[in-house]
Amino acid sequence: MRDLSSYFKKKHDLILKKNNQQTKISNSVQDFFREFYKSIDIQNILNIHYIASDNSLIIETKNKIFANEILIELLNLRGYLKQKGIKLSKITIR
């Protein structure tokens, strides 16, 4: 019978890696928008969700005008994330 402790350790390490990736992406996106919109409290406007299974990012906004601003800056955001070493398959803005 296999040792279950190694199985659980691998699962634990995988969960930590996903959480670290989520935190890194969330902080990078917030930092990007803080540079452009210094007078706005970004944490209250943006909800950032990273889906590890398909390597995608969902950015939800409470304000449609701000969602349009994100669309305008989307190429710059993608370039900023690439500089940070983050490669995503898709970015969805809601």
**In total, how many domains does the architecture comprise?**
1
Stretches with pLDDT under 50, minimum 5 residues: none
Report the C-alpha radius of gyration, rounded: 16 Å
Q: From the coordinates shown, what is the CATH architecture?
A: 2-Layer Sandwich
Question: Helix fraction?
Answer: 55-70%
Q: Give a quick account of the main beta sheet: strands, pairing sense, barrel closure.
A: 3 strands, mixed
Average predicted local confidence, pLDDT: 85
Percent of sequence in beta strands: 15-25%
Q: Give, in order, the helices and strands.
A: HHEEHHE
**If helices are DSSP runs of H or I spanning 4 or more residues, what is the number of helices?**
4
Distance between the termini: 48 Å
Cα shape: elongated
Reported by name, the CATH topology is: GMP Synthetase, Chain A, domain 3
* The CATH class: Alpha Beta
Report on this model:
Helix content is 60%, strand content 17%. The protein is of the alpha+beta class and 94 residues long. The protein has a 3-stranded mixed sheet. It is elongated, with a radius of gyration of 16 Å. It starts with a helix and ends with a strand. The model has no long low-confidence stretch (mean pLDDT 85).
